[in-house]
């Protein structure tokens, strides 16, 4: 009985998703403070299909670069682009714009590592273990290419349990290349 709680804690924290770092040779070096660049708020990711039509998935990039909870639907409806700035080695400022007017600014925390800025790991636990709980893990990193393109790598995973029945997602990793915003 005394081993149940330590085993439960190990299971909770051993299920965090791993963020794979692709080998890229065209990364810019970061110097703080610096303007990283201006980028579109949304991009379209195309899933190729061999027999059917290709599927287009709209991705809102802004959600990866914000710290505050909730949706920004009023600001996003007006937004034309966003601007990223490296404030110092542990903070990146992201500002949502409509033309030249700033709509919203957010600061994300993280650190520089091997040419990437790694956002602080977002780990949340809800519920009351061992009866009912859910653990969500989200990791994100981004780098700047030589032609000012933004390389974004993201990983998500969610696990949970109701009494002794455990379930979870297999973990999703995604990579995006975002080209600079053109006025």
Describe the structure.
The chain has 183 residues and is mainly beta. It has one domain (4-17, 28-178). Helix content is 9%, strand content 52%. It contains two helices and twelve strands, in the order αβββαβββββββββ. The strands form two sheets. Strands 1, 4, 5, 6, 7, 8, 9, 10, 11 and 12 form a ten-stranded antiparallel β-sheet that branches. β9 (132-144) and β10 form a beta hairpin. The chain is globular and about 60 Å long. The model has no long low-confidence stretch (mean pLDDT 82).
Per-chain topology:
Blueprint: H1 4-14, E1 34-39, E2 42-47, E3 55-60, H2 73-78, E4 81-88, E5 91-98, E6 101-113, E7 116-119, E8 122-128, E9 132-144, E10 150-162, E11 165-168, E12 172-178
Antiparallel strand pairs: 1-4, 2-3, 4-5, 5-6, 6-7, 7-9, 8-9, 9-10, 10-11, 10-12
SS strand fraction: over 45%
H/E element sequence? HEEEHEEEEEEEEE
The strand count comes to: 12
Please state the oligomeric state of the protein chains shown.
Answer: single chain
The rough form would be described as globular
Q: Portion of residues in helices?
A: under 10%
Main beta sheet strand tally, sense and closure: 10 strands, antiparallel
Domain count: the total is 1
Computed over alpha carbons, the radius of gyration is 19 Å
Number of helices: 2
- The average pLDDT score comes to 82
């Amino acid at each position: 009985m005394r081993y149940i709680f330590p085993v439960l804690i190990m299971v909770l924290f051993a299920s965090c998703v791993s963020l794979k770092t692709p080998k890229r040779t065209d990364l810019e070096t970061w110097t703080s403070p610096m303007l990283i660049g201006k980028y579109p708020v949304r991009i379209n990711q195309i899933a190729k299909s061999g027999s059917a039509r290709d599927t287009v998935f709209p991705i809102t990039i802004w959600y990866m670069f914000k710290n505050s909870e909730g949706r920004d639907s009023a600001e996003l409806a007006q937004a034309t682009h966003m601007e990223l700035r490296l404030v110092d080695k542990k903070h990146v400022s992201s500002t949502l714009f409509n033309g030249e007017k700033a709509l919203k600014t957010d600061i994300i925390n993280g650190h520089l590592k091997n040419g990437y800025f790694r956002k602080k790991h977002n780990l949340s636990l809800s519920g009351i273990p061992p009866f009912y709980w859910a653990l969500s893990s989200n990791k994100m990193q981004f780098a700047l290419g030589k032609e000012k393109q933004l390389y974004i790598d993201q990983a998500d995973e969610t696990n949970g349990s109701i009494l002794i029945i455990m379930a979870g997602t297999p973990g999703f990793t995604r990579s995006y290349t975002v080209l600079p915003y053109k006025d």
